[in-house]
Amino acid sequence: MSATDFPSLTAGMIAAQIREGTTSPGDILRASFARARGVNSGPDGLNSILWSDEKVALAEAETLSTQLSGAAKGGQLAGVPIAVKDNICTLDLPTTCASKILAGYTSPYEATAITRLREEGAIIVAKTNMDEFAMGSSTENSAYGPVRNPIDVRRVPGGSSGGSAAAVAAGIVPIALGSETGGSVRQPASFCGIVGAKPTYGRVSRYGLVAFASSLDQISPFARNVDDAALALEIMAGPDPRDSTSADVPVPSYREQFVSRATVPAPLEGVTIGVPKEYFPDQLDPGIRRLCNRSIEYLRTLGANVKEVSLPHTSLAIPVYYIIAPAEASSNLARFDGVRYGPRIKTDDSLRGMYEATRSAGFGPEVTRRVLLGTYVLSAGYYDAYYRKAQAVRALITRDFTTVFADGIDALFTPTTPTTAFTIGSISDPYEMYLSDIFTATSNLAGVPALSMPIGRSDGLPVGGQVIAKHFNEPMMFRVAYALEQALGAEAHT
Amino acid sequence: MAVTQDDVRHVAELARLAVDESRLDSLVRELNGILEHMEVLAEVETGDASDDTSYTGLTPTSTPLREDSSGPIPLNRPIESFAPATRNGFILVPRLASHADEISE
Protein backbone atom coordinates (compact mmCIF):
# COMPACT_ATOMS: atom_id res chain seq x y z
CA MET A 1 0.00 0.00 0.00
CA SER A 2 1.28 3.48 -0.79
CA ALA A 3 0.21 6.52 1.21
CA THR A 4 -1.58 7.91 -1.86
CA ASP A 5 -3.77 4.79 -2.09
CA PHE A 6 -4.79 4.94 1.55
CA PRO A 7 -7.72 7.42 1.34
CA SER A 8 -9.53 5.17 -1.14
CA LEU A 9 -9.12 1.91 0.79
CA THR A 10 -12.20 0.44 2.43
CA ALA A 11 -12.12 -1.18 5.85
CA GLY A 12 -12.66 -4.56 4.22
CA MET A 13 -9.60 -4.05 1.96
CA ILE A 14 -7.39 -2.83 4.80
CA ALA A 15 -8.24 -5.76 7.08
CA ALA A 16 -7.71 -8.25 4.21
CA GLN A 17 -4.30 -6.75 3.32
CA ILE A 18 -3.22 -6.84 6.96
CA ARG A 19 -4.37 -10.43 7.46
CA GLU A 20 -2.53 -11.44 4.27
CA GLY A 21 0.56 -9.59 5.44
CA THR A 22 0.82 -7.37 2.34
CA THR A 23 0.69 -4.27 4.53
CA SER A 24 1.22 -3.64 8.24
CA PRO A 25 -1.00 -1.99 10.84
CA GLY A 26 1.79 0.54 11.46
CA ASP A 27 1.90 1.61 7.80
CA ILE A 28 -1.88 1.99 7.70
CA LEU A 29 -1.92 4.11 10.85
CA ARG A 30 0.91 6.35 9.68
CA ALA A 31 -0.99 6.93 6.43
CA SER A 32 -4.14 7.79 8.39
CA PHE A 33 -2.34 10.29 10.64
CA ALA A 34 -0.54 11.83 7.66
CA ARG A 35 -3.86 12.29 5.88
CA ALA A 36 -5.40 13.83 9.02
CA ARG A 37 -2.55 16.34 9.29
CA GLY A 38 -2.88 17.22 5.62
CA VAL A 39 -6.61 17.93 5.54
CA ASN A 40 -6.96 19.51 8.97
CA SER A 41 -4.16 22.07 8.75
CA GLY A 42 -4.18 25.59 7.33
CA PRO A 43 -6.95 28.21 7.20
CA ASP A 44 -9.21 25.91 5.18
CA GLY A 45 -8.47 22.90 7.38
CA LEU A 46 -11.48 20.75 8.16
CA ASN A 47 -11.20 20.96 11.98
CA SER A 48 -12.70 17.47 12.05
CA ILE A 49 -10.58 16.09 14.89
CA LEU A 50 -10.53 17.19 18.52
CA TRP A 51 -8.25 14.61 20.12
CA SER A 52 -5.76 12.07 18.85
CA ASP A 53 -2.54 10.45 20.07
CA GLU A 54 -0.36 8.93 17.36
CA LYS A 55 2.03 7.29 19.83
CA VAL A 56 -0.71 5.39 21.65
CA ALA A 57 -2.29 4.29 18.36
CA LEU A 58 1.06 3.14 16.93
CA ALA A 59 1.76 1.15 20.09
CA GLU A 60 -1.56 -0.65 19.57
CA ALA A 61 -0.63 -1.29 15.95
CA GLU A 62 2.66 -2.76 17.13
CA THR A 63 0.87 -5.11 19.55
CA LEU A 64 -1.46 -6.19 16.75
CA SER A 65 1.49 -6.86 14.42
CA THR A 66 3.11 -9.07 17.05
CA GLN A 67 -0.12 -11.02 17.55
CA LEU A 68 -0.58 -11.49 13.79
CA SER A 69 2.97 -12.74 13.34
CA GLY A 70 2.05 -15.44 15.88
CA ALA A 71 -0.99 -17.68 15.83
CA ALA A 72 -3.66 -14.94 15.85
CA LYS A 73 -5.91 -15.01 12.80
CA GLY A 74 -6.78 -11.32 12.81
CA GLY A 75 -10.25 -9.87 13.26
CA GLN A 76 -12.67 -8.55 10.67
CA LEU A 77 -11.31 -5.05 11.29
CA ALA A 78 -7.66 -6.00 11.83
CA GLY A 79 -5.64 -2.79 11.81
CA VAL A 80 -8.52 -0.61 10.57
CA PRO A 81 -8.24 2.97 11.87
CA ILE A 82 -11.53 4.26 13.24
CA ALA A 83 -12.55 7.76 14.37
CA VAL A 84 -15.13 8.23 17.10
CA LYS A 85 -17.51 11.09 17.84
CA ASP A 86 -16.49 12.88 21.02
CA ASN A 87 -19.64 11.83 22.91
CA ILE A 88 -18.68 8.13 22.93
CA CYS A 89 -16.42 7.07 25.80
CA THR A 90 -12.94 5.85 24.93
CA LEU A 91 -10.12 5.00 27.33
CA ASP A 92 -7.07 6.81 26.02
CA LEU A 93 -8.53 9.99 24.55
CA PRO A 94 -10.74 12.65 26.18
CA THR A 95 -14.55 12.57 25.87
CA THR A 96 -15.82 16.16 25.97
CA CYS A 97 -18.93 16.24 23.73
CA ALA A 98 -17.24 19.37 22.26
CA SER A 99 -18.45 21.22 25.36
CA LYS A 100 -16.51 23.41 27.75
CA ILE A 101 -18.39 21.77 30.61
CA LEU A 102 -16.48 18.51 29.97
CA ALA A 103 -13.11 20.10 29.24
CA GLY A 104 -10.34 17.73 30.28
CA TYR A 105 -12.62 14.77 30.98
CA THR A 106 -11.27 11.32 30.08
CA SER A 107 -13.56 8.40 30.80
CA PRO A 108 -12.39 5.62 33.12
CA TYR A 109 -14.33 3.06 31.03
CA GLU A 110 -15.14 2.57 27.36
CA ALA A 111 -18.36 2.19 25.40
CA THR A 112 -19.45 -1.36 24.56
CA ALA A 113 -19.60 -0.47 20.86
CA ILE A 114 -15.92 0.54 21.02
CA THR A 115 -14.95 -2.63 22.89
CA ARG A 116 -16.63 -4.75 20.20
CA LEU A 117 -14.86 -2.94 17.34
CA ARG A 118 -11.50 -3.23 19.13
CA GLU A 119 -12.06 -6.94 19.71
CA GLU A 120 -12.18 -7.26 15.89
CA GLY A 121 -8.83 -5.47 15.60
CA ALA A 122 -9.96 -1.87 15.00
CA ILE A 123 -7.67 0.88 16.30
CA ILE A 124 -9.21 4.12 17.61
CA VAL A 125 -7.19 6.97 16.11
CA ALA A 126 -9.22 10.09 16.89
CA LYS A 127 -12.14 11.70 18.65
CA THR A 128 -14.08 13.89 16.28
CA ASN A 129 -15.58 17.36 16.46
CA MET A 130 -19.35 17.68 16.84
CA ASP A 131 -22.16 20.02 17.75
CA GLU A 132 -21.98 20.47 21.53
CA PHE A 133 -23.78 17.51 23.17
CA ALA A 134 -24.94 16.50 19.66
CA MET A 135 -27.33 19.46 19.49
CA GLY A 136 -27.19 20.86 16.00
CA SER A 137 -27.40 20.08 12.31
CA SER A 138 -24.25 21.79 11.02
CA THR A 139 -21.39 21.19 13.51
CA GLU A 140 -21.21 24.96 13.99
CA ASN A 141 -22.18 24.61 17.67
CA SER A 142 -18.87 23.13 18.84
CA ALA A 143 -16.92 24.86 21.62
CA TYR A 144 -13.89 24.15 19.41
CA GLY A 145 -15.07 25.88 16.23
CA PRO A 146 -17.00 24.70 13.18
CA VAL A 147 -16.09 21.76 10.94
CA ARG A 148 -15.74 22.29 7.19
CA ASN A 149 -17.18 20.06 4.49
CA PRO A 150 -14.37 18.29 2.57
CA ILE A 151 -16.34 18.57 -0.70
CA ASP A 152 -16.57 22.37 -0.38
CA VAL A 153 -14.78 23.95 2.59
CA ARG A 154 -17.08 27.00 2.61
CA ARG A 155 -19.95 24.73 3.54
CA VAL A 156 -20.99 22.83 6.67
CA PRO A 157 -20.55 19.04 6.81
CA GLY A 158 -23.98 18.70 8.44
CA GLY A 159 -24.36 17.64 12.04
CA SER A 160 -24.25 16.87 14.73
CA SER A 161 -21.66 14.19 13.84
CA GLY A 162 -19.96 16.48 11.30
CA GLY A 163 -16.38 15.71 12.38
CA SER A 164 -16.84 11.96 11.86
CA ALA A 165 -18.53 12.51 8.49
CA ALA A 166 -15.75 14.84 7.33
CA ALA A 167 -13.05 12.40 8.53
CA VAL A 168 -14.53 9.57 6.45
CA ALA A 169 -15.26 11.74 3.39
CA ALA A 170 -11.73 13.18 3.48
CA GLY A 171 -10.11 9.75 3.60
CA ILE A 172 -8.67 9.94 7.13
CA VAL A 173 -10.49 6.76 8.19
CA PRO A 174 -12.71 4.29 6.32
CA ILE A 175 -15.17 4.00 9.22
CA ALA A 176 -16.18 6.47 11.92
CA LEU A 177 -18.80 6.39 14.63
CA GLY A 178 -21.42 9.04 15.16
CA SER A 179 -24.59 9.17 17.18
CA GLU A 180 -28.14 9.63 15.93
CA THR A 181 -30.93 11.38 17.80
CA GLY A 182 -32.80 13.10 14.94
CA GLY A 183 -30.60 12.51 11.90
CA SER A 184 -27.14 13.38 13.23
CA VAL A 185 -25.45 10.67 11.14
CA ARG A 186 -27.66 10.43 8.04
CA GLN A 187 -27.82 14.19 7.46
CA PRO A 188 -24.01 14.71 7.55
CA ALA A 189 -23.53 11.50 5.51
CA SER A 190 -25.83 13.04 2.91
CA PHE A 191 -23.98 16.41 2.95
CA CYS A 192 -20.56 14.74 2.65
CA GLY A 193 -21.40 12.06 0.06
CA ILE A 194 -20.88 8.98 2.25
CA VAL A 195 -22.96 6.24 3.88
CA GLY A 196 -24.50 6.64 7.35
CA ALA A 197 -26.60 3.90 8.93
CA LYS A 198 -28.88 4.41 11.92
CA PRO A 199 -29.87 1.06 13.40
CA THR A 200 -33.19 0.16 15.01
CA TYR A 201 -33.66 1.76 18.43
CA GLY A 202 -32.16 -0.73 20.90
CA ARG A 203 -30.00 -2.51 18.30
CA VAL A 204 -26.63 -1.15 19.54
CA SER A 205 -25.71 -0.77 23.21
CA ARG A 206 -25.59 2.82 24.45
CA TYR A 207 -23.31 1.95 27.36
CA GLY A 208 -20.65 4.66 27.16
CA LEU A 209 -22.63 6.99 24.88
CA VAL A 210 -23.20 10.31 26.65
CA ALA A 211 -27.00 10.55 26.83
CA PHE A 212 -28.80 13.33 24.94
CA ALA A 213 -32.38 12.06 24.42
CA SER A 214 -32.61 8.52 25.71
CA SER A 215 -35.74 7.43 23.82
CA LEU A 216 -34.04 8.38 20.53
CA ASP A 217 -30.24 8.01 20.79
CA GLN A 218 -28.38 5.30 18.84
CA ILE A 219 -24.68 4.92 18.01
CA SER A 220 -24.41 4.73 14.21
CA PRO A 221 -21.53 4.13 11.76
CA PHE A 222 -20.30 6.18 8.80
CA ALA A 223 -18.44 4.51 5.93
CA ARG A 224 -17.58 5.16 2.30
CA ASN A 225 -19.64 2.22 1.10
CA VAL A 226 -22.59 0.11 2.21
CA ASP A 227 -20.44 -2.98 2.79
CA ASP A 228 -18.24 -1.29 5.42
CA ALA A 229 -21.27 0.29 7.15
CA ALA A 230 -22.95 -3.14 7.35
CA LEU A 231 -19.75 -4.71 8.67
CA ALA A 232 -19.32 -2.11 11.43
CA LEU A 233 -22.96 -2.29 12.47
CA GLU A 234 -22.98 -6.09 12.48
CA ILE A 235 -20.01 -6.08 14.87
CA MET A 236 -21.52 -3.49 17.24
CA ALA A 237 -25.09 -4.83 17.28
CA GLY A 238 -26.58 -7.13 19.88
CA PRO A 239 -27.66 -7.16 23.50
CA ASP A 240 -25.39 -5.84 26.25
CA PRO A 241 -26.03 -6.53 29.94
CA ARG A 242 -24.73 -3.01 30.69
CA ASP A 243 -27.57 -1.36 28.70
CA SER A 244 -31.05 -2.51 29.66
CA THR A 245 -32.48 -0.81 26.55
CA SER A 246 -30.35 -2.93 24.21
CA ALA A 247 -32.68 -5.43 22.60
CA ASP A 248 -32.35 -9.15 23.15
CA VAL A 249 -33.01 -9.85 19.47
CA PRO A 250 -30.65 -12.06 17.41
CA VAL A 251 -28.29 -10.27 14.99
CA PRO A 252 -28.35 -11.89 11.54
CA SER A 253 -25.50 -11.40 9.10
CA TYR A 254 -26.19 -8.11 7.36
CA ARG A 255 -23.57 -8.61 4.67
CA GLU A 256 -24.71 -12.11 3.71
CA GLN A 257 -28.00 -10.62 2.47
CA PHE A 258 -26.30 -8.72 -0.32
CA VAL A 259 -23.03 -10.61 -0.82
CA SER A 260 -25.01 -13.76 -1.73
CA ARG A 261 -26.95 -11.75 -4.35
CA ALA A 262 -24.00 -9.74 -5.69
CA THR A 263 -24.00 -11.45 -9.09
CA VAL A 264 -27.77 -11.90 -9.46
CA PRO A 265 -29.19 -9.76 -12.32
CA ALA A 266 -32.29 -8.66 -10.36
CA PRO A 267 -31.18 -8.65 -6.70
CA LEU A 268 -34.35 -6.85 -5.57
CA GLU A 269 -36.77 -9.33 -7.18
CA GLY A 270 -39.74 -9.77 -4.88
CA VAL A 271 -38.94 -6.63 -2.84
CA THR A 272 -41.64 -3.94 -2.60
CA ILE A 273 -40.35 -0.42 -2.09
CA GLY A 274 -42.64 2.38 -0.95
CA VAL A 275 -42.05 5.99 -1.96
CA PRO A 276 -43.83 8.18 0.60
CA LYS A 277 -45.35 11.23 -1.09
CA GLU A 278 -44.87 13.44 2.00
CA TYR A 279 -41.09 13.27 1.45
CA PHE A 280 -41.42 14.84 -2.00
CA PRO A 281 -43.15 18.18 -1.29
CA ASP A 282 -43.53 20.75 -4.08
CA GLN A 283 -40.75 22.91 -2.63
CA LEU A 284 -38.19 20.05 -2.61
CA ASP A 285 -34.89 21.08 -4.21
CA PRO A 286 -35.27 20.14 -7.91
CA GLY A 287 -31.78 18.63 -8.10
CA ILE A 288 -32.57 16.33 -5.18
CA ARG A 289 -35.91 15.34 -6.75
CA ARG A 290 -34.22 14.52 -10.07
CA LEU A 291 -31.57 12.31 -8.43
CA CYS A 292 -34.16 10.51 -6.26
CA ASN A 293 -36.22 9.80 -9.38
CA ARG A 294 -33.15 8.39 -11.09
CA SER A 295 -32.53 6.09 -8.11
CA ILE A 296 -36.17 4.99 -8.11
CA GLU A 297 -35.79 4.01 -11.78
CA TYR A 298 -32.72 1.98 -10.86
CA LEU A 299 -34.64 0.25 -8.06
CA ARG A 300 -37.23 -0.83 -10.65
CA THR A 301 -34.49 -2.08 -12.98
CA LEU A 302 -33.08 -4.11 -10.08
CA GLY A 303 -36.36 -5.99 -9.85
CA ALA A 304 -38.13 -4.07 -7.08
CA ASN A 305 -41.82 -3.33 -7.20
CA VAL A 306 -42.03 0.42 -6.46
CA LYS A 307 -45.24 2.09 -5.34
CA GLU A 308 -46.33 5.38 -3.82
CA VAL A 309 -47.37 5.27 -0.16
CA SER A 310 -48.44 7.81 2.46
CA LEU A 311 -47.02 8.53 5.91
CA PRO A 312 -49.62 11.16 6.81
CA HIS A 313 -48.07 12.48 10.05
CA THR A 314 -44.62 13.24 8.57
CA SER A 315 -44.98 17.03 8.77
CA LEU A 316 -45.49 16.80 12.56
CA ALA A 317 -42.13 15.14 13.18
CA ILE A 318 -40.13 18.33 13.75
CA PRO A 319 -42.57 19.88 16.26
CA VAL A 320 -42.76 16.53 18.09
CA TYR A 321 -39.00 16.00 17.98
CA TYR A 322 -38.21 19.49 19.28
CA ILE A 323 -40.42 18.90 22.30
CA ILE A 324 -39.33 15.35 23.16
CA ALA A 325 -35.57 15.69 22.51
CA PRO A 326 -35.08 18.93 24.52
CA ALA A 327 -37.30 17.56 27.32
CA GLU A 328 -35.15 14.46 27.65
CA ALA A 329 -31.97 16.53 27.25
CA SER A 330 -32.95 18.89 30.05
CA SER A 331 -33.14 15.87 32.32
CA ASN A 332 -30.02 14.07 31.03
CA LEU A 333 -27.86 17.19 31.16
CA ALA A 334 -28.80 17.88 34.78
CA ARG A 335 -25.81 15.71 35.74
CA PHE A 336 -23.33 18.30 34.43
CA ASP A 337 -23.22 20.52 37.47
CA GLY A 338 -19.55 20.88 38.33
CA VAL A 339 -19.65 18.12 40.94
CA ARG A 340 -18.87 14.92 39.04
CA TYR A 341 -17.42 16.01 35.71
CA GLY A 342 -15.35 18.78 34.20
CA PRO A 343 -14.46 22.18 35.57
CA ARG A 344 -16.14 23.56 38.68
CA ILE A 345 -16.69 27.27 39.10
CA LYS A 346 -16.61 28.10 42.78
CA THR A 347 -18.71 30.95 44.08
CA ASP A 348 -18.77 32.57 47.49
CA ASP A 349 -22.37 31.71 48.18
CA SER A 350 -24.39 28.52 48.05
CA LEU A 351 -24.02 25.19 46.32
CA ARG A 352 -26.78 26.35 44.01
CA GLY A 353 -24.64 29.31 43.01
CA MET A 354 -21.86 26.88 42.06
CA TYR A 355 -24.27 24.82 39.96
CA GLU A 356 -25.59 27.87 38.13
CA ALA A 357 -22.19 29.44 37.57
CA THR A 358 -20.69 26.19 36.29
CA ARG A 359 -23.59 25.31 33.99
CA SER A 360 -23.95 28.81 32.58
CA ALA A 361 -20.25 29.07 31.81
CA GLY A 362 -20.02 25.49 30.53
CA PHE A 363 -22.97 25.24 28.13
CA GLY A 364 -23.01 27.04 24.79
CA PRO A 365 -26.02 29.00 23.42
CA GLU A 366 -27.81 26.12 21.64
CA VAL A 367 -27.50 23.76 24.60
CA THR A 368 -28.77 26.50 26.93
CA ARG A 369 -31.70 27.17 24.58
CA ARG A 370 -32.66 23.50 24.45
CA VAL A 371 -32.32 22.95 28.20
CA LEU A 372 -34.62 25.95 28.77
CA LEU A 373 -37.08 24.75 26.11
CA GLY A 374 -37.06 21.21 27.52
CA THR A 375 -37.56 22.44 31.07
CA TYR A 376 -40.44 24.65 29.89
CA VAL A 377 -42.36 21.87 28.09
CA LEU A 378 -42.01 19.64 31.16
CA SER A 379 -42.95 22.32 33.68
CA ALA A 380 -46.23 22.42 35.59
CA GLY A 381 -49.03 23.79 33.44
CA TYR A 382 -47.36 22.99 30.12
CA TYR A 383 -46.59 19.29 30.41
CA ASP A 384 -49.94 18.07 29.01
CA ALA A 385 -50.12 20.62 26.21
CA TYR A 386 -46.60 20.00 24.97
CA TYR A 387 -44.84 16.89 26.24
CA ARG A 388 -47.80 14.54 26.65
CA LYS A 389 -49.32 15.69 23.38
CA ALA A 390 -46.01 15.20 21.59
CA GLN A 391 -45.75 11.62 22.88
CA ALA A 392 -49.25 10.86 21.55
CA VAL A 393 -48.41 12.32 18.13
CA ARG A 394 -45.16 10.36 18.21
CA ALA A 395 -47.24 7.19 18.54
CA LEU A 396 -49.16 8.27 15.40
CA ILE A 397 -45.89 8.79 13.51
CA THR A 398 -44.76 5.31 14.57
CA ARG A 399 -48.09 3.85 13.40
CA ASP A 400 -47.59 5.46 9.98
CA PHE A 401 -44.51 3.25 9.58
CA THR A 402 -45.91 0.06 11.12
CA THR A 403 -49.00 0.40 8.89
CA VAL A 404 -47.09 0.63 5.59
CA PHE A 405 -44.74 -2.19 6.61
CA ALA A 406 -47.74 -4.36 7.60
CA ASP A 407 -49.27 -3.61 4.18
CA GLY A 408 -46.47 -5.42 2.37
CA ILE A 409 -43.89 -2.66 1.96
CA ASP A 410 -40.38 -4.02 2.61
CA ALA A 411 -38.48 -0.73 2.54
CA LEU A 412 -39.07 2.97 1.90
CA PHE A 413 -36.99 5.23 -0.33
CA THR A 414 -36.82 9.00 0.27
CA PRO A 415 -34.40 11.92 0.04
CA THR A 416 -32.30 12.22 3.23
CA THR A 417 -32.43 16.01 3.43
CA PRO A 418 -34.50 18.79 1.84
CA THR A 419 -31.37 20.69 0.68
CA THR A 420 -27.69 20.05 -0.02
CA ALA A 421 -24.95 21.36 2.32
CA PHE A 422 -25.43 25.05 3.13
CA THR A 423 -22.67 27.61 3.67
CA ILE A 424 -21.15 28.12 7.11
CA GLY A 425 -22.98 30.86 9.03
CA SER A 426 -25.92 31.08 6.60
CA ILE A 427 -28.67 29.85 8.96
CA SER A 428 -29.19 31.85 12.14
CA ASP A 429 -32.84 31.09 12.95
CA PRO A 430 -32.95 28.04 15.28
CA TYR A 431 -36.16 26.61 13.79
CA GLU A 432 -34.93 26.96 10.22
CA MET A 433 -31.90 24.88 11.25
CA TYR A 434 -34.19 22.29 12.88
CA LEU A 435 -36.00 21.81 9.55
CA SER A 436 -32.80 20.28 8.18
CA ASP A 437 -33.87 17.08 10.02
CA ILE A 438 -37.37 16.99 8.51
CA PHE A 439 -36.86 13.70 6.61
CA THR A 440 -34.65 12.00 9.20
CA ALA A 441 -36.25 12.69 12.62
CA THR A 442 -39.26 10.52 11.71
CA SER A 443 -37.18 7.30 11.83
CA ASN A 444 -35.75 8.21 15.22
CA LEU A 445 -39.21 8.94 16.62
CA ALA A 446 -40.51 5.61 15.27
CA GLY A 447 -37.34 3.67 16.17
CA VAL A 448 -36.99 2.16 12.69
CA PRO A 449 -33.59 1.62 10.97
CA ALA A 450 -32.64 4.08 8.22
CA LEU A 451 -29.60 4.59 6.04
CA SER A 452 -28.37 7.48 3.90
CA MET A 453 -26.25 6.79 0.82
CA PRO A 454 -24.82 9.00 -1.92
CA ILE A 455 -27.05 9.01 -5.02
CA GLY A 456 -25.38 11.72 -7.11
CA ARG A 457 -24.44 15.40 -7.05
CA SER A 458 -26.51 18.51 -7.61
CA ASP A 459 -24.48 21.63 -8.52
CA GLY A 460 -21.40 19.71 -7.43
CA LEU A 461 -22.76 18.94 -3.97
CA PRO A 462 -23.56 15.44 -2.67
CA VAL A 463 -27.19 14.31 -2.43
CA GLY A 464 -28.25 11.49 -0.12
CA GLY A 465 -30.98 8.93 -0.67
CA GLN A 466 -32.56 7.29 2.36
CA VAL A 467 -33.60 3.64 2.74
CA ILE A 468 -35.87 2.90 5.72
CA ALA A 469 -36.91 -0.58 6.88
CA LYS A 470 -39.08 -1.95 9.65
CA HIS A 471 -37.86 -2.54 13.20
CA PHE A 472 -34.85 -4.92 13.27
CA ASN A 473 -34.93 -5.42 9.50
CA GLU A 474 -31.44 -4.01 8.92
CA PRO A 475 -30.79 -6.91 6.49
CA MET A 476 -33.46 -5.53 4.11
CA MET A 477 -32.17 -1.96 4.52
CA PHE A 478 -28.64 -3.03 3.57
CA ARG A 479 -29.82 -5.30 0.75
CA VAL A 480 -31.70 -2.46 -0.97
CA ALA A 481 -28.87 0.04 -0.35
CA TYR A 482 -26.18 -2.29 -1.64
CA ALA A 483 -28.09 -3.13 -4.82
CA LEU A 484 -28.70 0.57 -5.52
CA GLU A 485 -25.06 1.42 -4.79
CA GLN A 486 -23.89 -1.21 -7.31
CA ALA A 487 -26.37 0.01 -9.91
CA LEU A 488 -25.36 3.67 -9.48
CA GLY A 489 -21.63 2.94 -9.57
CA ALA A 490 -19.69 6.13 -10.29
CA GLU A 491 -22.96 8.04 -10.81
CA ALA A 492 -23.34 8.15 -7.01
CA HIS A 493 -20.57 10.75 -6.94
CA THR A 494 -21.19 12.67 -10.17
CA MET B 1 -49.28 30.36 25.39
CA ALA B 2 -46.57 32.94 24.79
CA VAL B 3 -43.45 32.68 26.94
CA THR B 4 -42.73 35.73 29.10
CA GLN B 5 -39.56 37.01 30.76
CA ASP B 6 -40.85 35.62 34.05
CA ASP B 7 -41.31 32.20 32.44
CA VAL B 8 -37.70 32.25 31.28
CA ARG B 9 -36.50 33.26 34.76
CA HIS B 10 -38.61 30.46 36.25
CA VAL B 11 -37.39 27.67 33.96
CA ALA B 12 -33.80 28.92 34.21
CA GLU B 13 -34.09 28.53 37.95
CA LEU B 14 -35.54 25.02 37.57
CA ALA B 15 -32.72 24.14 35.14
CA ARG B 16 -30.05 25.61 37.43
CA LEU B 17 -28.94 28.09 34.80
CA ALA B 18 -28.02 31.68 35.54
CA VAL B 19 -29.47 33.70 32.69
CA ASP B 20 -28.09 37.17 32.27
CA GLU B 21 -30.84 39.82 32.28
CA SER B 22 -29.44 41.18 29.01
CA ARG B 23 -30.15 37.81 27.36
CA LEU B 24 -33.78 37.61 28.53
CA ASP B 25 -35.33 39.47 25.61
CA SER B 26 -33.64 37.38 22.96
CA LEU B 27 -34.40 34.12 24.81
CA VAL B 28 -38.08 35.06 25.06
CA ARG B 29 -38.08 35.77 21.32
CA GLU B 30 -36.24 32.56 20.43
CA LEU B 31 -38.37 30.30 22.62
CA ASN B 32 -41.60 31.84 21.32
CA GLY B 33 -40.25 31.53 17.78
CA ILE B 34 -39.74 27.80 18.33
CA LEU B 35 -42.91 27.16 20.33
CA GLU B 36 -45.20 28.80 17.75
CA HIS B 37 -44.33 25.90 15.44
CA MET B 38 -45.53 23.46 18.12
CA GLU B 39 -49.04 24.92 18.21
CA VAL B 40 -49.99 22.72 15.24
CA LEU B 41 -49.93 19.72 17.59
CA ALA B 42 -52.95 21.02 19.49
CA GLU B 43 -55.06 20.48 16.34
CA VAL B 44 -54.11 16.81 16.00
CA GLU B 45 -56.74 14.27 17.00
CA THR B 46 -54.71 11.59 18.81
CA GLY B 47 -57.52 9.24 19.93
CA ASP B 48 -56.18 6.13 21.66
CA ALA B 49 -52.58 7.07 20.78
CA SER B 50 -52.42 9.07 24.03
CA ASP B 51 -52.05 5.81 25.93
CA ASP B 52 -49.70 4.18 23.43
CA THR B 53 -46.28 3.76 24.96
CA SER B 54 -44.83 1.47 22.29
CA TYR B 55 -43.43 4.39 20.30
CA THR B 56 -39.80 3.30 20.57
CA GLY B 57 -40.53 -0.08 19.00
CA LEU B 58 -39.09 -1.92 22.00
CA THR B 59 -41.34 -4.41 23.80
CA PRO B 60 -41.06 -6.31 27.09
CA THR B 61 -40.01 -9.32 24.95
CA SER B 62 -37.16 -7.51 23.24
CA THR B 63 -35.92 -5.94 26.47
CA PRO B 64 -36.60 -8.50 29.20
CA LEU B 65 -35.85 -7.67 32.81
CA ARG B 66 -32.66 -9.18 34.19
CA GLU B 67 -31.89 -10.48 37.65
CA ASP B 68 -31.71 -7.59 40.08
CA SER B 69 -28.02 -8.05 40.77
CA SER B 70 -24.84 -6.68 39.32
CA GLY B 71 -21.23 -6.31 40.26
CA PRO B 72 -19.05 -3.23 40.06
CA ILE B 73 -17.74 -2.28 36.63
CA PRO B 74 -13.94 -2.12 36.86
CA LEU B 75 -12.42 1.27 36.07
CA ASN B 76 -9.49 1.56 33.71
CA ARG B 77 -7.65 4.00 35.94
CA PRO B 78 -7.71 4.84 39.65
CA ILE B 79 -10.27 7.41 40.75
CA GLU B 80 -7.47 9.70 41.99
CA SER B 81 -6.53 10.26 38.34
CA PHE B 82 -9.85 11.81 37.38
CA ALA B 83 -11.74 12.87 40.51
CA PRO B 84 -11.15 16.44 41.70
CA ALA B 85 -10.57 15.23 45.27
CA THR B 86 -10.70 11.87 47.05
CA ARG B 87 -10.48 10.47 50.55
CA ASN B 88 -10.12 6.76 51.44
CA GLY B 89 -11.15 5.70 47.94
CA PHE B 90 -14.24 7.92 47.88
CA ILE B 91 -14.81 10.97 45.69
CA LEU B 92 -15.11 14.17 47.69
CA VAL B 93 -17.86 16.47 46.46
CA PRO B 94 -19.09 19.86 47.66
CA ARG B 95 -21.50 19.72 50.56
CA LEU B 96 -24.81 18.86 48.86
CA ALA B 97 -27.22 20.19 51.49
CA SER B 98 -27.03 22.33 54.54
CA HIS B 99 -29.49 23.99 56.83
CA ALA B 100 -27.67 27.25 56.28
CA ASP B 101 -28.49 27.04 52.58
CA GLU B 102 -32.17 26.50 53.24
CA ILE B 103 -32.41 29.49 55.57
CA SER B 104 -30.42 31.83 53.37
CA GLU B 105 -32.76 31.23 50.38
What's the arrangement of secondary structure elements?
The complex is a heterodimer of chains A (494) and B (105).
Chain A: H1 11-20, H2 25-40, E1 49-51, H3 54-69, E2 81-85, H4 112-119, E3 123-128, H5 162-169, E4 175-180, H6 186-192, E5 195-198, E6 218-223, H7 226-236, H8 254-259, E7 272-276, H9 286-301, E8 305-309, H10 317-332, H11 351-362, H12 365-378, H13 384-406, E9 411-415, H14 430-434, H15 441-446, E10 450-458, E11 461-469, H16 474-488
Parallel strand pairs in A: 2-3, 2-4, 7-8, 7-9
Antiparallel strand pairs in A: 1-3, 4-6, 5-6, 5-10, 9-11, 10-11
Helix pairs in contact in A: 2-3, 10-12, 10-13
Chain B: H1 5-14, H2 21-35, E1 86-87, E2 90-91, H3 99-104
Antiparallel strand pairs in B: 1-2
Can you describe this structure?
The complex is a heterodimer of chains A (494) and B (105). Chain A is α/β, with parallel strands linked by helices and 494 residues long. Chain A has a domain at 6-258: Amidase signature (AS) domain (Amidase signature (AS) enzymes, Alpha-Beta Complex). In chain A, 38% of the residues lie in helices and 13% in strands. Chain A is globular. Chain B has helices at 5-14, 21-35, 99-104; strands at residues 86-87, 90-91. A two-stranded antiparallel sheet of chain B has the order 1-2. In chain B, a hairpin with a 2-residue loop joins strand 1 (86-87) and strand 2. The model of chain B is unreliable at 101-105 (pLDDT under 50). Chains A and B meet through helix 10, helix 11, helix 12, helix 13 and helix 14 of A and helix 1 and helix 2 of B.
Q: What does this entry show, briefly?
A:
Chain A is α/β, with parallel strands linked by helices. Chain A has helices at residues 11-20, 25-40, 54-69, 112-119, 162-169, 186-192, 226-236, 254-259, 286-301, 317-332, 351-362, 365-378, 384-406, 430-434, 441-446, 474-488; strands at residues 49-51, 81-85, 123-128, 175-180, 195-198, 218-223, 272-276, 305-309, 411-415, 450-458, 461-469.
